[in-house]
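User: C-alpha cells for Lysophospholipid acyltransferase family protein, please.
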Amino acid sequence: MYSEPLLVSQLLLAATKTKLFLHHQERIPPAGSMLVVSNHRSFMDAPLLMSAIGRPIRFACHHYMGQVPVMRDLVTRLGCFPLEEMGKPQKKFFQQAINLFEKQQVVGLFPEGAQPMVEFTKPETMGEFHRGFAHLALRSPVERLSILPVAIASLEENVSSAVPLKLLSWFDPSEPFFNNSGWHPLVVYQRVNVLIGRPYWITSSVRQGFKGKQMKTVVAELTDYCQTEISELLRQGCN
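Assistant: Done. Predicted C-alpha cells:
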C-alpha cells in the first residue's frame, strides 16, 4: 500500500535526470514515527525527500493541488493528502497525521506554506515557518516521535512558467496569492543537495511542558529549532 509513492518518486527523479546528493544520512532515524519538515520551492520536493530518506512519506499539500487536473493525479500517486481550504480548521489533516504516527509511519510538512511555491524565489531563500507542524507533533499521542528537519539546496535547475495564478483561483478561490498577477513557477531540479538536520525527539517529558502558560513557549522553541537548522543547512548546501 505504501510502496507506490516511493516507487513513483524514484521514477520521477529518473525521468527528469535529477542528480541527488545526500548529506548527513546517518541522522535519519531508521524506523518509527517521524515528521519530516523542509523548505519548499518545487513540486519535486516531496519525491526528492522520499527518495533521500528511503521511506514513503505522506505529505500534506496545499488545497489547490487536490483540485487541479494532472496535479491532482500526481499528488494522489505520491500519497499526498490535500489540506482544507485556506482559513478552515485542519482537523481532518491532524487526525489523518496522528493515525499515521500511531502506525509508525512518516508524515511530511512544508511549514513555509504556499508562498514559495507560487512566487519565483532563489534557492538560498526561505520564508518564515508557520507553527502548525509544532502543534501537530506536540499533540500526537505516540510514545516517541522524531521531527526531522531537512534542507533542499538546489545547485542547478530549470525554471519556467507553468500556469497563470489567476487561473488557479478558479480551482481554489480561498488562496489570496492566486489574486496576484503573474505565473505559477515550475522548478525542475537538475542537481540538488539534500542535507539532513539533527532530529528533535518529542517524548512524554517534552509534552509535559506543552500545557498552560508554557504552551506558546514550547511551540515557538520547536519552530525556531527547525527553522534555524534548515536555514543553516540551506546556507551550507547552496555554497
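User: Anything notable?

Assistant: The domain at 3-238 is CATH 3.40.1130.10 (Glycerol-3-phosphate (1)-acyltransferase).
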